[in-house]
Amino acid sequence: MKPWFIGLAGALFGAGITVSGMANPAKVQNFLDVAGSWDPSLALVMGAALLVVTPGFFFVFKMSAPKYAEAFALPTRKDIDWKLLLGALLFGIGWALSGLCPAPALVATLTGVSGFFIFLLAMVAGMILYRFIFES
């Protein structure tokens, strides 16, 4: 049953990304362009997401463990180091330039547009490069 719920959650997430316009790079770039042709509609998407997730966290953390796992997998580190800052900077620059971040990029590949596959390959190459440099 667990794989079905994972698939359903992924499909629902992908549908939400598509319906909200987050898989459209031009819409994301217009949202980030506050000094130019700013499109505030994605702020409504973020607000709606917060309205859904906030009560969800309240109920989930009252549980002793998740339904399909032994325990919650929460981050334990609280420090801010140069790798976190550099990663956040690179992520933000990449998001602003391409209009895509990882989840919308995966959804956008379903359109078959070659530019999305190129982005996805570059993203995977960056992940491999990170592992090669920092985790070897």
What can you see in these coordinates?
The protein is mainly alpha-helical. The protein has one domain. The protein is 68% helix and 0% strand. The protein has six helices and no strands. α1 packs across α5, α2 packs across α4 and α5 runs antiparallel to α6. It is globular, with a radius of gyration of 17 Å.
Which key features would you list for this structure?
6 helices; 0% strand; 136 residues; transmembrane helix; transmembrane; DUF6691; mainly alpha
Give the arrangement of secondary structure elements:
Layout: H1 2-20, H2 25-32, H3 41-60, H4 82-98, H5 102-108, H6 114-134
Structural class: mainly alpha
Sheet-strand content, in percent, reads: under 5%
Number of beta-strand segments: 0
Q: Tell me the span between the first and last alpha carbons.
A: 36 Å
DSSP helix fraction:
55-70%
Number of self-contained structural domains: 1
Q: What is the helix tally?
A: 6
Q: List the secondary-structure elements in sequence, H or E.
A: HHHHHH
